[in-house]
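Response to reviewer comment R2.3. The reviewers asked that we include at least one raw input/output pair. We reproduce the pair for Peptidase C51 domain-containing protein here without editing.
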Amino acid sequence: MSNSVSFPKFNTNILSLNTTGPGFINGSGPKQDPAVMTKPYITTGFSMADIFEGSAPKTTSTSKAKPPASGSDIGQKIVDIANKQAGYKEGANNSNKFTKEMTGKSGQAWCADFVSWAAKEAGLKSPRSSTVGGIVNQLKEQGTWKNKKNPQPGDAIAFNSPSTSRWDDHVGIISKVNYKTVEKNGKKTKVPVSVDVISGNSGKNTDGVSTRKKVPLNDPSIIGWGSMAKPKKK
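Raw output as returned:
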């Protein structure tokens, strides 16, 4: 678990608070005090992000989507694409290439844009959202939201912020699942205990693409996770 960090002020001109719109899961997000939007606050190493309006912006892709991989390969393909961006840093006022390609804007809180971009680059049509809630909703709609079961590489993982009243704060990609061996009924089996996560708008200064190692699956900040690949029709 990374140490708690204090986040700097950020440009709120692009933010439009919406507690009932499609960016929130079934309108369940609590009302927010606009006064806190410009104040630094403490969280668990991730950025305050995705409180602007809208859950599925139109994309302005500058590259052709690749054909999706087959079967379980799609998850690893998403991870490989995301890992190649590790160390990327944003410019002034949250400017970044992921927001630019997915929305046409120069910059905004972009953790969800990064996840959407990785899915697009892997050949998927969804999720496509600039909000944490939008991504969760889209995975629920396509039937691939798992809550907190069966984590797999390439799954989108959503977090809240325990130190604030925000119900959704950050979204990233599970890059690795870590297991331990336990004995049950005389049989040894491997069970998942933690995950590595790669995400955008994150890290010490919340300004780049970074990896967080061994996030315990019982971490109270985890909302849940879901596969970004749609299940095959039988």
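Residues 5-226 form a domain with the endopeptidase fold (from Nostoc punctiforme) fold (CATH 3.90.1720.10). The mean pLDDT is 75. Further pairs are available on request from the corresponding author.
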